[in-house]
Amino acid sequence: MKPLEAWIYFCKFDYGCVICRRQGEHSYAEYHHRLSGGRRIGDFDGFGLCPTHHQSPNRKIVGRDHNLKRFEKAHGPEVEMQRETERAYEQFKATKVAPVMVKFA
């Protein structure tokens, strides 16, 4: 697997949605490319967001496609979401153990 493919696979399936993970859930994610001036910064500049947090048509849920300032106010800076995912990916590469979301009763 090429490095970019491995990174995107990790973001979508192994780590999942950053916001859901912070809320104690694990969900499949779409790959969100970070933007600058309306353009993608780069292929590796992104992280996972579930469909609800990525492009939800529901205005009660603050999804990324609505407004960056509103999204970051609700969920924190995108750059922190990417760093969080990168740290988990580095740990995954070192241990070969995917991060698992464990729910305690």
Labels describing this entry:
single chain, 105 residues, mainly alpha, Herpes Virus-1, two-stranded antiparallel ribbon, 5 helices, globular
Summarize, please.
With 105 residues, the chain is mostly helical. The chain contains 5 helices and 4 strands.
Give an overview in words.
This protein has 105 residues and is mainly alpha-helical. The chain has one domain: Herpes Virus-1, CATH 3.30.40. The strands form two sheets. The protein has a two-stranded antiparallel ribbon with strand order 1-4. A two-stranded antiparallel sheet has the order 2-3. The longest helix has 18 residues. The N and C termini lie far apart (37 Å).
Question: What is the strand content?
Answer: 5-15%
Largest sheet: 2 strands, antiparallel
**What is the name of the CATH class?**
Alpha Beta
CATH fold node name: Herpes Virus-1
Count of separate DSSP helical elements: 5
CATH architectural label: 2-Layer Sandwich
Q: What shape does the CA trace take?
A: globular
The string of secondary-structure elements, in order, is HHEEEEHHH
- Gyration radius, rounded: 14 Å
Q: Number of DSSP strands?
A: 4
The structural class is mainly alpha
Could you state the oligomeric state of the chains shown? single chain
- How much helicity do the residues have? 40-55%
Task: Let me know the average pLDDT.
Answer: 85
Span between termini? 37 Å
Uncertain residue ranges: none
Strand order of the largest sheet: 1-4
Domains counted in the coordinates: how many? 1
